[in-house]
Amino acid sequence: MPEPRSSRIFRPQTYASPCYHRFTFLSFGIAMSYVPLGDGRTKPYVETIELTTKHNGQPTYSYVPPSRLPEGEIDNYNNFQEHILSGKPSIDNWPVKSQQVAILTPLRGSILVFDILLASSPLLFTVLAVAVARLDGKVPLTGSYKLEEMLLYTPTVFPLLFAALMGRFFRHLGIWLAERGTTLGRLEQLIGCQSVFLAIERQICLRNFSTVGVCSILIWLLSPFGGQSALRVLRQEARYLNTTQTLHYLDPLNTDNSSMMGASAINSGRSTFTSLFLAALLSSTDYQTRPADLWGNVKLPSYRALQNSNSNDWKPVPDYNETTIKWGSLIGIPVSAFNGEDFTMYATSHFNIKARQFDISCTSNEEKHRDVTSNKTWPIKSTWIVRTAIQQPDCTGNSSCKYVGCDAYPCPIISTSLSESTVYEAASVAKCEYHYDYVEASIECTRSLCKATSMRKLDMFTDGYTEDQDSFIRGVVMANLMVTMPSVDTVGVTSANVRGASNMERWLMDPTSFIGGGGNTVNLHELAVDVFADRLTILWNSFFQATYAARALAGNLDKATSTNIFNSSSGQAISFNATEGLASQRVDVYRVDWKWFAVLLSCSLVLLFAAYAGLLLKYLSVAPDIIGYASSLTMLNPYVPSPTGGTTLHGLERTALLHDLPVRIGDVCPSEPVGAIALAANDGRVVGLDRKRRYI
């Protein structure tokens, strides 16, 4: 007499035959039924299933669990019985009653909300791609830096979401097709396609290179491309905004206010021009080779040293980093915008300036015997003298005698310097001549570094410079310069020759190592003629520039807001010339790589489509999700006793309910000549596999 349904429990059937059992096919399936046996319990247990068969046709044979326990498996059987009878496998919430499939329950509704949110996550990458596209050509702002940070995280997040959503898509597509009928091979390709390597593995192992398999591989390859495209889609590049600015540079006509214009001016400005000149002379070799002086003023090369300097065309100035440039002076030309700001704040600036510079060339440089007559000693207070080579009248006792200056360039001069000689008293004598050139230079400033890039020679008597001014320069100014410069560091010393060579002589001998030379003299005649001429040109121009507009040379002009600057010694105003400069201000802007943008957007849209398609297929399918789960191997498995029903459970739901059920893959017919491998309950009747045994 059957018990009521609520009290039914199920026990495994004990088979009379050892391993083979006879049953028949009904249509195309095996017809099996559950025979309940009750002992008064109300909850179903996993060991209470009993299988019987209906014989409806020609008999066939199948493997069933053996009736006797193999040797050595008694302990496993006892453990299994203890596990069954302990009450632990008592399964609450097991669906023992018939029910509809895929109905909407509160739990299923909450899962649906989660699935919608998960499927919508690729919208983040789509929105990110659109936001990146809008940044093209724009200046970085505070919010845009956060967007850059999000792009850095994308290569990590994108593959994770891609694997989750694309795997769900292929899985639910396979279930949807299986519900409507498909081939086992196609189902395996879709369900097993959870990564690019698994997709390739399915293609190789199934020996069937189908369109579905190839497409799945190509789709999975989008994952790394989508992640890496985020790192390459956006970059910053420099854009230069051109603008004009008015700059002011030192007017060459300030030479009219040189301290060399007279004895009184020399005495008034001595402390100023001596400090400036010696500071430039004693500066490090690094500063002397740079295109700017100690105070940031623009230094100009010697025009004669440039290639093809004979014509009046623009001559390029070599890069000072690649070659040694022969500078015309150690002191540069001051330039400022006079607006209280550094005009080099722009990335690049281009402008032209004009200047005048002396150029000295020599024809000889040799050692000669010093004139010594009637007990005369060296008639000057220095070891070095520079004088004009023009014959001067004998002015002894003649107060109205005048100095004869140079009438036209080139103006000849003679440099005489005491030399070291152990045989006789001698001096290094060089015969030279100087020119006075008017040049224009093109200046390029990059940030705070300004340098001349090209130069050309201009007509001497232009821009307000007259012949009278030039005559005064050639006569009075140069005469005072030749007297003052050689003794600028030994002024007031009675016997300067006892002290040794001056700093200027030592610098002429070796500009890189001349400080602290001791009381000895130097042999300037050992220098090549052109080397001596180039170094004398630098000294000549440096000293002359230090004698006028001193406040402009080291006056921190970037902070000045007006050109009303006066010399401290003479009280005369310093004049500046205006020049229009083209300034290119560097602005960093975003630049989108549109190829990588297309990759990012395409991968994001494909992922978004797959996510929503997988969501739709999941809830369109009526069949439970049982494919690919280990618990699905226990469904209707004669070797795994399980409660009646449960066919509506999803794979994970079944696993959660049967998680304590001990199982084992082994030989379910250990007593037969040929074994059979199956997943079975580890109740002692299933033994381990043996490499030497044969299995069907």
Give a brief outline of the structure.
By secondary structure, the chain is α+β, with helices and mostly antiparallel strands. Helices cover 32% and strands 20% of the residues. Keywords: Membrane, Transmembrane, Transmembrane helix.
Descriptors:
696 residues, nine-stranded antiparallel β-sheet, two-stranded antiparallel ribbon, 32% helix, 20% strand
Description:
- Keywords: Membrane, Transmembrane, Transmembrane helix.
- By secondary structure, the protein is of the alpha+beta class.
- It folds into three domains: 147 residues, no CATH class; 156 residues, no CATH class; 327 residues, no CATH class.
- 32% of the residues lie in helices and 20% in strands.
- The protein is built from 17 helices and 19 strands.
- Strands 7, 8, 9, 10, 11, 12, 13, 14 and 17 form a nine-stranded antiparallel beta sheet that branches. A two-stranded antiparallel sheet has the order 1-6.
- Helix 4 runs parallel beside helix 16.
- It is rod-shaped and about 145 Å long.
Structural class: alpha+beta
Question: What is the domain total for the residues?
Answer: 3
Portion of residues in beta strands equals 15-25%
Helix content: 25-40%
- Major β-sheet, in short? 9 strands, antiparallel
Radius of gyration: 51 Å
Keywords: Membrane, Transmembrane, Transmembrane helix
Transmembrane segments: 112-132, 152-170, 204-222, 594-617
